[in-house]
Amino acid sequence: MKASTETLRRQSRALVLSALRTLGPASHTDIAAWSGLSSATVSSITTELEQEGILERLPSEAGAAAGRGRPRVLLRHNAGWVYIIAVRVTSETIQYSLVDYSGTLKDRIEEKRPQDELNASAFSKRFCASLARLAKRSSLPHSKISKISITSKGLVARDRPVLLWSAIFGDVPIDFEALLRPAWQADIALINETRFVAQAVAERLRAELGGESPARLSTLSLGHSIGLGLAGKEKGRRISSVALPFGHMIHQPDGPLCRCGSQGCVEAFSGFYAILRKAFDVPQNTIPAKFVPLDQMDKIAMQARRGDRRAEYAFRQAGEVLGVGLSRVFNLYEPMPLTITGPGIRYLDLMLPALEANLANNLVVRFAGPPKISIRDDESELVFRGNVQACLADLDTDNHELNAEAQAFLKVEE
Fold this sequence. Notes:
It contains 14 helices and 15 strands. It is α/β, with parallel strands linked by helices. The protein has three domains: 2-77, Winged helix-like DNA-binding domain superfamily/Winged helix DNA-binding domain (Arc Repressor Mutant, subunit A), CATH 1.10.10; 83-195 and 382-397, Nucleotidyltransferase, domain 5 (2-Layer Sandwich), CATH 3.30.420; 245-377, Nucleotidyltransferase, domain 5, CATH 3.30.420.40. Strand 4 (93-100) and strand 5 form a beta hairpin. Helix 1 crosses helix 2 (28-35), helix 1 crosses helix 3 and helix 8 (272-279) packs antiparallel against helix 10 (309-333).
């Protein structure tokens, strides 16, 4: 019973903090209406959170009500309670962002990656130095950084922050937990970035729907790599998201060589290097380029739009394979809205007709109707926002340690 009470208390705290994430500065009455908690419970929880420094009151004049009566007391997250660092690693750049507990970006370092840096050890050394520089610039001790959340494309371990495979370093793993200890005591996370694209799109859609979470949606990232993310609502109000290893799903056994070393992956037909290889009729077992400059892709696209049949076919085949792959995913999960993002959207006019045609040929899609397809050109911001939103939601849920009895209770429940 004691453990059950502790669990309810923890859930109530998370609901209060989630309400303030959604509403912004809000009164006890607003929080109670949004969360469904009683006024007495909200009052007790907010008092507790204020005492712990997690919440703070706005200056009294900010809560002054129009007309007569006492001014409303508005509460908000204490921005300086803890901080997070959100890192995005791509083939071209590494972006380090310092964010406070209110979700405000405080500082950012963005570095171009040397294209000849193929050594994981050199990358790791520079990575640690840049993290330390970011904290030092803001005069923050490492103890104030509660979480370091890193995003990358590639194959990520499910249970620990280890990059198992990446296009740049191949099968050489990078263990970020081992890399950052003991200098950092923060929680270390490594997530495939496509998951956070889906998270951010779902969060924005929820805001547009007035707080109602979307049932499920998908996001497709086009570029050097091919990524697919899914997002949807969990029990309650929280949105969950996942990145599927879509780009390395086998489309055709013994097909073109992929950067991962397998043959016939979706990416080996639809990634930038695959389109380049097909447009120039390069043998399909040629070792793929790790990086294709956008100006090179622009030239191939220009040729395709001018009627060059080989270049045109390279993009059309990329769209066909994407459509077949999405059909398989929709067979498993059901058709759902699709948002397409990434640098490859600049060539979407050359791929979309074939993609849609292959979706339309799918039995499930024929009965459910074609999914709504939208385009977003701000992938970098989506990755950043999705990462920050997920980190803050985790902090709101885990804002205090459960006692041993509660932990044991939850373990049994799971």
